[in-house]
Amino acid sequence: MRAIDRRSLPDRVFEQLTAEIVGGRYDAGSAIPSERELSEALQVNRHVVREAIKRLEQIGLVRVTQGGRTTVLDYRRTAGLDLLALVAEHVEPADELAPLLAAALEMRAGIGADVARLCAERSPRSAGAELVEIAALLAEATSAEQLLELDERFWQRALDGAGNLAYQLAFNSLIRAVHAQRELSVPLLEEELRHSGHRAPIAEAIAAGDSQAAERAARAALAAAAPSPARLRPKGKAARHER
User: Fold this and answer.
1) How far is CA 112 from each of CA 64, 132, 149, 193, 238, rounded to the nearest angstrom?
2) What is the pTM of this model?
3) Which residue of 17, 26, 78, 238 pairs with 72 in a disulfide if CB–CB is 3.0 to 4.6 A?
4) Where are the beta strands (DSSP E) in 142-226?
5) What pLDDT, in 10s, does the model give residues 164-213?
């Protein structure tokens, strides 16, 4: 372990322990070091460590048992979607993230297709017109920042039209996860937009109120961007063997 920077101490301890647990430093069922040991190793007081562990327990990474022993849980069985973005933002190296990002993109395809369908069914025609305008701007965008901002705006408008809060919250986590590693996500987004008409087929189907066509167009566009983990690994970096 390394000493923690003095800024936002509980956050930094929480982020470091999250990365170590998800990265495999501690196996499910094992115990992490005691508060005293963590306090000494990280050079912070025990209150900071206790607060970080409480947050780990809240997101389903550990369980604190009687006597103060903190046991690592199998996060695949106990954590929620909020962990997705945290892992993408804090776990290193990038090749460890490849399976996670591939899974996030695959999930995005399923959610996006249903969001497009619901938006076509439930939203007024004005929503479709707005989406057509955003698609046109996407086709003219010249920078990665513009692409990311416009694409998020497109899907946010579609989510507004779909009117499904659970999809909105899930999509928030997916967007954070995919965009946390921009050197991986931006090239994929550029390729996806180029080969799918820059969202125009989705927007036009929603504007026409054709829910089936909107679903097909979204699925075709987004499924193409659900690559294998190997394709998501940065070029020139050797991938670690899967655990």
Assistant:
1) 37, 16, 17, 14, 32
2) 0.78
3) 26
4) none
5) 999 999 988 888 887 777 877 888 888 889 889 999 999 999 999 999 99
CA–CA distance, 230 with 227 (Å, rounded to integer): 8
**155 Cβ contact list (under 8 Å, min separation 6):** 112, 115, 171, 175
Q: Using CA atoms, how far apart are residues 229 and 96, in angstroms rounded to an integer?
A: 9
Q: Taking the CA atoms of the chain, what radius of gyration do you get in angstroms?
A: 21
Q: For the chain, what's the residue count?
A: 243
> What gap in Å lies between CA 138 and CA 149, rounded to an integer?
9
| 100-127 average pLDDT score | 91
CA distance 53 to 242: 27
Tokens (6 digits) for 156 = 């946010």
Torsion angle (degrees, nearest 10) of CA 29, 30, 34, 38: -110
Domains assigned to the chain: 9-78 (1.10.10.10), 82-232 (1.20.120.530)
Across 37-152, where does the E strand assignment appear? 62-64, 70-72
pLDDT digits (tens, 9 = 90+) for 121-165: 999 989 999 999 999 999 999 998 899 999 999 999 999 999 999
One-letter identity of residue 105: L
Q: Which two tokens stand for residue 178?
A: 């995919």
Name the phi and psi angles at 137, rounded to 5.
-65, -40
Q: What percent of the chain has pLDDT over 90?
A: 56
